[in-house]
Write a structure and sequence with these properties.
It is a single chain. The longest helix is centred in the N-terminal third of the chain and has 25 residues. With 286 residues, this protein is an alpha/beta fold. 42% of the residues lie in helices and 18% in strands. The chain is globular, with a radius of gyration of 17 Å. Strands 1, 2, 3, 4, 5, 6, 7, 8 and 9 form a 9-stranded mixed sheet that branches.
Length: 286
Amino acid sequence: MEVFCLPGRSAVRRPPVTLLPVNFLDEEDEVSAWLAALESRHLADLTPSEVARALRALSSCYVERRARLRRGGALDTRGKRAAFALFYAPIHFLVVRGIVRELRGARTSMPAVVDLGCGSGAAGAAWARESNTPRVLGIDRHPWAVAEAEWTYRALGLRGRARRSDFTRLPGVVPRGAGVVAAYALNEIEPPARAAVLDVLLAAHRQGSSILVVEPVARRITPWFSEWRRGFDREGGRSDEWRFPSTLPPRQRALATAAGLDPSALTARSLWLPGTSAEAMTGSST
């Protein structure tokens, strides 16, 4: 879930980087209310300095101690859960919202958005709001994430539910024509399970679903991404890298600074396959 990145040298054959200004402070009232509610919810029993210390530990887990992720180490303390909800959830919302606004066809309404490894529900909520999609289904194996995702859906005015399950077991979960998002989740699972998810996602696309994958740009975290890109290319998809010059709300900026993170840019890479409805309404992606 690494999202901060300083500018570096471009790699050979790196996809074009899209530069977009993003300002959370211009968001509509409902999103602003969600951010305020997050503070009330997660700072009721913790101080900002306690959350910042937990954010440092959480960031270390994502970058340096990745073996702990599969054992639930990212959410194993109250402080880490608060840091995830207060810091990473708004950023995931912001990044996915920005990507969806730029991908042709991604704002087409669908029967539902299915969020794999949903965490606190921010990615699926962002896509559902941008596409005026009526339902969100979040899937996560962590009980806290399931409860937090359902709270997020309510706070953002969405009809959604989350269920506790292993999202690598997908058959029967994706409604025909739904949007499926996997944001910052695929890098945390074992290679055999990830390969199985790719097969299921491509099969869902052939049944009309739109597929969006969002991951960090760091190649040490996503060595499998090139293989996935080739799979998406064969189906007519596209890949992008994004760098968002960001203006974060005061709370998230303060947490980033206190945790030693650079809040000047948000980066991500994405894979996109438009579903039947998106292709019919907008034509090929640009």
